[in-house]
Amino acid sequence: MPNLIKSFRATYYNPSVIKNLSQVASPPYDVISKKQLALLRKKSPYNFSNILLADNNNYKETGSRLRKWIADRILIDDDEECLYLYEQAFKVSGKKYKRFGILGLLNMDKKDVVFPHEYTLSAPKEDRKKMIREVEANLSPIFVMVPKRLKYFHSIYNSYLRMKPFERFKDLDGNDNKVWKINDKNTIKKLCQEIEGNNLTIADGHHRFEVSYDYYQNNKGRFENLNYLLAYFTDAQDGLVILPTHRVACLEDSSTLFSDKMKEIFRIQEVKNINILEKKLKKENNFAFGVCLNGKVYLFKLKEKKILDKLFKDSVYKNLDTYLLHELIFNIVKIKGSIEYTHNLKEARKFAGKSRAAFILKPVSLEAVFDIANKGYRLPQKSTYFYPKVYSGMLMRRFAI
Hints:
Blueprint: E1 5-6, E2 11-13, H1 34-43, H2 49-52, H3 59-71, E3 75-77, E4 83-92, E5 95-107, E6 114-115, H4 122-135, E7 137-138, E8 142-145, H5 151-160, E9 167-170, E10 176-182, H6 185-195, E11 200-204, H7 206-218, E12 228-234, E13 241-243, E14 246-251, H8 260-265, E15 266-271, H9 274-282, E16 288-293, E17 296-302, H10 306-311, H11 321-332, E18 335-342, H12 345-351, E19 356-360, H13 366-374, E20 385-387, E21 397-398
Parallel strand pairs: 6-11, 8-12
Antiparallel strand pairs: 1-5, 2-3, 4-5, 4-10, 5-12, 7-21, 8-11, 9-10, 13-20, 14-18, 14-19, 15-17, 16-17, 16-19
């Protein structure tokens, strides 16, 4: 019976040609801003963003560029199948964290094992479908989580900390990234066995998962192990940090925020600034959110939890602020046009105006994400943001090797 995960031969930058991975590593395709893209392209003509993103939607050119880099040995293939241990050291609000996981291949055919937690959008999937057809590779890993602590996984991580990394670089946020090769067959077998039998929740990469599965279904037999895709596996650990994703939207009538209907449900309090708002939100166990509008900052606190019992029958969703914002607030306070998203409080505050409101949210808890996914539910898009992102350019998986 095929394993849930397996080792593979990665393709990565040739260390004899690329001396500094910081010049070529890139954030995942879906979070690269125009400003970041310009910065990445200036770093090196071989920056991985040149492969991740197709300029002017020219996917054939991107595929040709990748093949040329391989022919010129800018990128080389590993000579053995490995798992790759990956650590990220970072800070959030001044606090230091480390998150580690394993890069390997995930079996997409395993039913009732891999659970998504967010809905996907058609445009990003169409983009990735065109890309995967041209590059014939998994350029970036998806991010999956085991909802418990894995003992052997942690012991292997601690043992590798004493060894020199295979790769090391600083990312755009200044976070330290390290990669070690795990090539011992017995260690690989034990790691795979420990993960086997667990339910896996997709933290990031829902679009890539769906696109890879579609590609596999339409190209069966063309490449070996095409039913597997590149994935980053981690377990429940302190370094699994979720940032809130705030919403910025134009309102049809800003006065509806303070309507009788809203006052029936919420206690509305004006606060001095957004930093005080953030502190107050952290103390709230029940549904609460902030609003920046017309130069002022407000805290909306649910009056009584039983109000939600009348409005929502499903107990899972009653504890999810992103869902409640979309299904409750946005049905009272009508918005027009598209919603913009940001993880930065100051940026959210800056975007707000007279009829343009920034809705400030608390982060979704890790327990809620596991609960939702395992029960087959999904959150609205952009509900979770696991920080930091798993970087691209450290290694990729080509179907032909």
